[in-house]
Amino acid sequence: MNRKKHHYKKGFIFLLLSMVVLLSGCEQMVVFDPKGPVAESQKDLILYSLIYMAGIIVVVFAAFAIIVVKYRDHPNRKASSYKPNLHGNKAIEAVWIIIPIIIVTLLSIPTVNTLFDLEEPPVSSSDKEPLVVYATAANWKWFFSYPEQDIETVNYLHIPTDRAIEFRLASAGSMAALWIPALGGQKYNMAGMQTVLYLQADEPGVYDGRNSNFNGEGFTEHTFEVYAESGDKFNEWVSEQQETAPNLTQKKYNKLLEPGLVDRYTFSSTHRDWVQHGTLEDMDYTIERFREAYETNMHLENDGEQTNNEH
Amino acid sequence: MQLDEFFVTGEPLIYGGMVAIALVTSAILFILTYFKKWNWLWREWLTTVDHKKIGIMYILSALAMLFRGGMDALMMRVQLAFPGMNFLNAQHYDEVFTTHGTVMIIFMAMPFLIGLMNIIVPLQIGARDFAFPFVNAISFWSFFFGAMLFNISFVIGGSPDAGWTSYTPLAGAAMSPGPGQNFYLLGLQLAGIGTLATGINLMVTILKMRAPSMKMFHMPIFTWSSFITCFIIIFAFPILTVALALMTIDRIFGSQFFTLTGEGLPMMWTNLFWMWGHPEVYIVILPAFGIFSEIIATFAKKRLFGYSAMVWSIVLIAGLSFLVWVHHFFTMGAGAFVNSVFSISTMLIAVPTGVKIFNWLGTLYKSKIEFSVAMLWSLAFIPSFVIGGVTGVMLGMAAADFQFHNSYFLVAHFHYVLIAGTVFACFAGLVYWYPKMFGHKLNERIGKWSFWFFLIGFHVCFFPQFFIGLDGMPRRIFYIAPEWFTLNFISTIGAFGMGVGFAIFVYNIYYSFRYSERETTGDAWNNGRTLEWATAAPVPHYNFATLPDKVGYDALLDMKEKGETTFDESKLEPIHMPNNTGKPIIMMGILAFASFALVFEWVTLAAIGLIGTIIMMGIRSFDYDDGHYVSVDEIKRTERAARGLNDE
Ligand code: HEM
Ligand SMILES: [Cu+2]
Ligand SMILES: [Cu+2]
């Protein structure tokens, strides 16, 4: 008997310890360290749900531990504590149906609210028009077109802070998902259709973004970096690119589109002049050109450095 | 076609796999030949229509698949242990996680549970057999050949690499050329036929073959959970069948259902896949709930708390499982309203699930808990599954899921439910019913070692992953960034702990086979409550010599009180049983050959194979063999020997 009890204790202490160690690392985890209102609202929702979840866990674990210890088959137990035919109790069963329903309701309300909020640009910047960026995933790189500024970047992104970014997502190949955890959650990029994702940065900084939806061999390196900077600095960057960057020709674009990994590029025009991957007519643009290219294996190895940090 | 296109070349790990396969196969062939066991194997096993033997073959295959999927898992965990690892390259990693996920769900979890259902359900309802024993053999062989077809892909032709979800257009012919994805499609299709047939077969068995007078609401809870699972199978699997067929036609015959060309609808696959896929996860969890309920009642020595609430919650979960599939792609941009609806329906599943958790606690309350190995697995399930459940609710909150989706948070969550739910249940059920299947128990002391290694390894492996996910690590990447090192390393250590636990479990099978005391009574744990414990050990192939009448809830308890047995000599009558037949294995072997040919797009060969299968079906329909009778004398002799009664 003693040995068994010992086991449980060990397991329990271990669990507690690991909880403490892991939770103490919380502050640094990106999702809990939001840099913009969208990620902020998602963090709030997660923390809100965590309170209820912790409550459930505490109640169930405590009840479980007490019952298992108390009702183990033990020589000096009172005979009256064993009721082999006890098999129901309407009142208590009602309680454990009603309480979860209440919890689910309490979780649903903020979930639904947040869902509807996320479909609009964040309120904190409602005085400014959102900056429109077409984010196109191709195997395995990112094209960011700024239609108003008439520039296009490959595998990196500059955005102004305190202004909503309206990402218009599409894919030039297999399905991808644009995810910048520090700024907020993701949405899918799909060929032949367009989805809209609003994100915003409140703090200047460099954030990791990536494709989070598996799309083949280059998936791990299908990443980009986001440079969030003040509106002025952003405008400076834009005019610099408009002046210095070369034009994007269709030939060059097709070359970049070919399945494989490429470096960063900047252009002073966008590919939207001749192809819009988010529309049905253009959804086969890449496939028609590069069908054979998918047959070659890249033999992609872990080169020990992250593509992200090369800039 | 060149030989080096047919066989996979250039990977030391795969050469190792080939050598291992060759060695194991020749060893098996040698042993069978040396000990002159071919005939025995054919007569007793390959041609059997006995539901218990078929169940055992299911479980053995599932254990082999658990080993294979587990090796895949360890390979992935090794690759992810350090940021600088180059153990697997990108392509190979993709193949490994794809085969791991598919093997675990389709060829391990489901067959393991179906194996247990095969053995136990007829016994629990006092039936002598399945409603359609021949079809049951077909089901097994279609699963078996499906699994083999899928498994050879890694040495012949190349493994699929588009994930177990095989999203189009990635999985389409253009972006995943070569036979790999065809192996996925045809392996699953072949196995799926068997699953669907089992669903129908078992459902009819439960409805029509119950002991006279056993009411639906007197059925043991495991039978109930199997029954509801059959409903899910019958409604969900046709969706998979159609989806797989459409993608096969896309890939092999150039149609454009899911392509980026010719007005294809790639997203349609995602919908179809999860309309099957979400119910599928309940196919592997509901029977597990049933198993835990049986074990907890037995080793708590107490009647199950809230039996009818348990049944209704299973029914409710099954119903809801068809209404939540969109939660697998909240991020598709369907809009706030659609996401809200599916978000709420998802969270609602937590309510009946919670009812079950509390009913198990209610069963333990005022009980007398005996910590046998089967009970330990069942007890460990409760807190572990609660962690999986609450994180499931968090994932169900669509706005939060935008951050969780495709991250390690998700990986941690689904392993928490699949392992703490399904795998623990498979182990628990196997240990619990082992004496019914093999006539001896598994060693309890070794069993406990295996349990603790696996349990602790499991938490060490998957708990940190919640945090790696919140730190932005996506699933399916083949190497990690330096900042994710510590938690990943811990996770890998845990995975090896589970590996050790599994190895001890397998060793226990060998050890117990050699040294365990043989069973003399049918009621191996002394506390059996349901009819399966009323048969002799080993269970005669006709199951029950006489069927008890007036069967109520916890039928065996009643019988014990009234001093009845399932061997009442005065009531013996000859029993009709079906004959063994080689047709199922041959028929499915030919179909597997056709599928293999189709994988390589050898359409003529495939057509020949298909015709062969149809011919076999024709032969079968002119089969007038209607079985044999077991004589009263033989029943007497068998039962007396099994029950240790003296011949007067
Ligand atoms: C035995 C210990 C296990 C370990 C260490 C393990 C580990 C892993 C790892 C490392 C991945 C890949 C994660 C990624 O890179 O995205 C994975 C994926 C997966 N695992 Fe497991 N796993 C285990 C058992 C299971 C079991 C028992 C099941 C199902 C019953 C299962 C189902 C899956 C599925 C469905 C996937 C997703 C595959 C995909 O992304 O296509 N695993 N597992
Ligand atoms: Cu879409
Ligand atoms: Cu689901």
TrEMBL record, chain B:
* Gene name tied to this protein: qoxB
**Catalytic activity, EC:** 1.10.3.-
User: Which domain of life does the protein's organism represent?
Assistant: Bacteria
GO annotation, cellular component aspect = plasma membrane; respiratory chain complex
The entry's family comment says: Belongs to the heme-copper respiratory oxidase family.
Entry's Gene Ontology molecular function annotations? copper ion binding; cytochrome-c oxidase activity; heme binding; oxidoreductase activity, acting on diphenols and related substances as donors, oxygen as acceptor
The pathway that the record names for this protein is: Energy metabolism; oxidative phosphorylation
Q: Where are the transmembrane segments?
A: 12-35, 56-76, 96-121, 133-156, 183-207, 227-253, 273-292, 304-326, 332-355, 376-400, 412-434, 446-467, 487-510, 586-619
Enzyme class label: oxidoreductase
Question: Residues in domain Cytochrome oxidase subunit I profile?
Answer: 34-551
Keyword Transmembrane listed? The answer is yes
Q: What is this protein called?
A: Quinol oxidase subunit 1
Catalysed reaction, written as an equation = 4 Fe(II)-[cytochrome c] + O2 + 8 H(+)(in) = 4 Fe(III)-[cytochrome c] + 2 H2O + 4 H(+)(out); 2 a quinol + O2 = 2 a quinone + 2 H2O
Q: Which GO terms describe its biological process?
A: electron transport coupled proton transport; oxidative phosphorylation; respiratory electron transport chain
Subcellular location, record wording = Cell membrane
